[in-house]
Amino acid sequence: MKFRFLLLFIFLFVQSRAEPVVKEDVKNIKIAVYRAIESSSVTDSLYRALKSGKTESPLIVAYIGTLEALKAKHSWNPYNKIRYVSLSQKTMKKAVEQEPSNLEIRFMRFSIQHHTPSFLGFSKDLEEDRKAIVRQFKNRKFGLADAALIRNMAAFMIDSDRCLKEELILFKKYI
User: Fold this and answer.
1) CA-based nearest residue to 102, from 144, 130, 138
2) Cα Rg for the chain, rounded, in angstroms?
3) Among 70, 60, 135, which residue's Cα sits nearest to residue 98?
């Protein structure tokens, strides 16, 4: 029941808003995306809700790109997996171009590309995104990210084994 209420809330929010996304709205979307990681039905419902919305904020575009990557994860068909990963990369590129200094957008793209097999050729922005993420952490520019998300990002960056020693020291300050 809570799940249906959450999806209904997100759907109504997306349908009724044309102004920029506010912090509370993003928080609810993050909760739903977290659930979508393990559920194809949540992924599909949230994807439809966000795609049908009027908001074109770069952060929402990035969440759509993340959901496209999750659609690839949940698909059993290799063709659909490749198609959704490719679509996700285009969507994430659009979000980054719209707001290149947004930490969450860069982190979402980094994490998607980190988990995408490198032989597919969809992991070309890892170094650029890593550097952007490090820069944002150094400057303490976290945007709408709360303390828990910042901690999780830092932990992910450490666990990714893609960071330099001095970057690891920086990220360890946040966990």
Assistant:
1) 144
2) 16
3) 60
Three-state secondary structure readout of 70-88: HHHHHCCCHHHHHHHHHHH
Report the largest interatomic distance among the alpha carbons of the chain, rounded to a whole angstrom.
Answer: 46
AA letter at 63: Y
**Taking a C-beta distance cutoff of 8 angstroms, is the pair 95, 125 a contact?**
no
Distance in angstroms (rounded) separating the CA atoms of residues 54 and 152: 30
Of 169, 101, 150, nearest to 129 by C-alpha is 101
- C-alpha span between 16 and 27 (Å, rounded): 17
The answer to whether 59 and 21 have CB atoms below 8 angstroms apart is: yes
Distance CA 102, CA 144 (A): 9
Rounded to two decimals, what is the model's pTM? 0.84
CB 168 within 8 A of CB 160: no
Cα distances from 5 to residues 1, 11, 32, in angstroms, run 6, 10, 11
pLDDT tens-place string over residues 47-93: 999 999 877 799 999 999 999 999 999 999 999 999 999 999 999 99
Decide if 88 contacts 111 (C-beta within 8 A): no
Cα torsion at 162, 23, 7, 42 (round to 10°)? 0
Residues 6+ apart with CB under 8 A from 35: 3, 42
